[in-house]
Amino acid sequence: MLGIETSCDETAAALYQPEAGLLAHAVHSQVADHAAYGGVVPELASRDHVRKLPGLVQGVLRDAGLEAEALGGVAWTRGPGLPGALMVGAGFARSLAWGLDVPAVGIHHLEGHLLAPLLEPQPPAMPLVALLVSGGHTLLVQVAGFGRYRVLGDSVDDAAGEAFDKTARLLGLPYPGGPAIARLAEAGRPGAVRLPRPMTDRPGLDFSFSGLKTAVLHAVEERGSDEQGRADIAHGFQEAVVETLAIKCRRALEQTGCRRLVVSGGVGANARLRERLDALAAERGFSVHYPRLELCTDNAAMIAYAGALRLAAGERGDLDFSVRPRWPL
Ligand code: KG4
Ligand code: ZN
């Protein structure tokens, strides 16, 4: 199964085979192209996908020592994402599948993310709870089995990654904000800046991060003029997000009776979040599973994997190459 991902600012291709696992995967990140604008510019993203995708597909075939004729199917990200960016992947994937006479399967990007931890050795059994934290989404999902998803909680405003990106901008840090904040937070003093843990004082599993951004803005006005102050704010912000996510994960596991948690999406690469969830798991006796770092952020391995599972489950693929920029899980 060839996987193709072009939903946002990463162009990616991967090859997955049910018997052998992940054969090859490659990602081209456009981060540097968008950095000057402080966020992703959709038109630039689409154009760069057009330029990079064919070479990436050839690259993974070469890495795996395969010809295109060996492919049994092509899985591509149908949505959600940027319409123009998605259409590049859709057109390429459908055309290649048509030419090779193999099925093309349109995949939900978030299904890809939440299955990514299962690409690792000793994957957890289902049912499980998935925490999906990326630049566009903050979801808690109950996964009863493959394709059986129930959203338990969602963000009512900003996504967790978006909060990292916006806070980074307030602190004068580059895009993407997550890694930059994590780095600056290392120099921050614990407890020096305490920010709210939004929506943890009432029941429920929804998230809200926009108020946190306002609290950061006030902290920057007060303390942001020197380097130590900015590091303290980065530290306080990261703690607030991590603690909020940990509280909701614990609640979701209690509420569903699940004993397994998987974490995915770009924010799932955050070392402090992993440390906190590992501690919680040890304390509460559940297991927690993460993808390797490069499969936390956008990639095509998760798309190829979801496609292979869908074909194995009897999905036939279709000729449709309409995209779904907004598409609930
Ligand atoms: O999953 P992803 O690559 O793209 C989306 O589908 O959104 O996630 C990107 C997001 C960005 O907001 C970025 O700031 C955040 O993940 N991120 C992190 C870290 N690495 C990436 N956030 C916190 N800590 C990190 N180490
Ligand atoms: Zn993503």
Automatic annotation (TrEMBL):
EC top class, as a word: transferase
EC number per UniProt: 2.3.1.234
CDD domains on file: ASKHA_NBD_TsaD_bac (cd24133)
Cofactor (UniProt): Fe(2+)
Subcellular location: Cytoplasm
Gene3D superfamilies: 3.30.420.40
The reaction(s) this protein catalyses: L-threonylcarbamoyladenylate + adenosine(37) in tRNA = N(6)-L-threonylcarbamoyladenosine(37) in tRNA + AMP + H(+)
Pfam families registered for this protein in UniProt: TsaD
Domain Gcp-like: 22-305
Keyword Acyltransferase: yes
Transcription as UniProt keyword: no
Main location: cytoplasm
Assigned keywords, A-Z: Acyltransferase, Cytoplasm, Iron, Metal-binding, Transferase, tRNA processing
Positions bound to substrate: L132, V133, S134, G135, G136, D165, G178, N270
NCBIfam families given in the database record: gcp_kae1 (TIGR00329), T6A_TsaD_YgjD (TIGR03723)
Homology family: Belongs to the KAE1 / TsaD family.
PANTHER family according to UniProt: TRNA N6-ADENOSINE THREONYLCARBAMOYLTRANSFERASE, TRNA N6-ADENOSINE THREONYLCARBAMOYLTRANSFERASE, MITOCHONDRIAL
Function: Required for the formation of a threonylcarbamoyl group on adenosine at position 37 (t(6)A37) in tRNAs that read codons beginning with adenine. Is involved in the transfer of the threonylcarbamoyl moiety of threonylcarbamoyl-AMP (TC-AMP) to the N6 group of A37, together with TsaE and TsaB. TsaD likely plays a direct catalytic role in this reaction.
Name under which the protein is recorded: tRNA N6-adenosine threonylcarbamoyltransferase
Organism of origin: Halorhodospira neutriphila
Classification of source organism: Bacteria, Pseudomonadati, Pseudomonadota, Gammaproteobacteria, Chromatiales
